[in-house]
Amino acid sequence: MGNRYRQLCLEERCLLACQAEGYLPDRDPDTLAFTLWSTVHGAASLIAQNRVPSTTDRAHLVTTIIDTVMDLVAATR
After folding, report:
1. Rounded to two decimals, what is the model's pTM?
2. Where are the alpha helices (DSSP H) in the chain?
């Protein structure tokens, strides 16, 4: 439990820094941290359970997921 809490705190500080730069305005950092954590955890779970098409390059999929999340964040500024 301690590691999970520490990770969420780090995510929240990162989100606060992003907000200070004008990204993700008017959003609750706790909700943002939970949303991002849920996205990453969900993707990781699906990949670990082989719930992606067999022809999918997993490394490319992970990179695409990260890029997509970063694009969504960038679009808020």
Report:
1. 0.75
2. 2-20, 29-48, 58-74
The number of domains in the chain is 1
Question: What is the span of the domain harbouring residue 29?
Answer: 2-74
3-state secondary structure of 23: coil
Residue 56: DSSP 8-state: -
Q: What is the pLDDT along the chain (77 residues), one digit of tens a residue?
A: 456 666 766 677 888 899 999 999 999 888 888 888 889 889 999 999 999 988 889 999 999 999 999 999 999 99
| 68: its two tokens | 């997509």
Contacts (Cβ under 8 Å, ≥6 apart) of 14? none
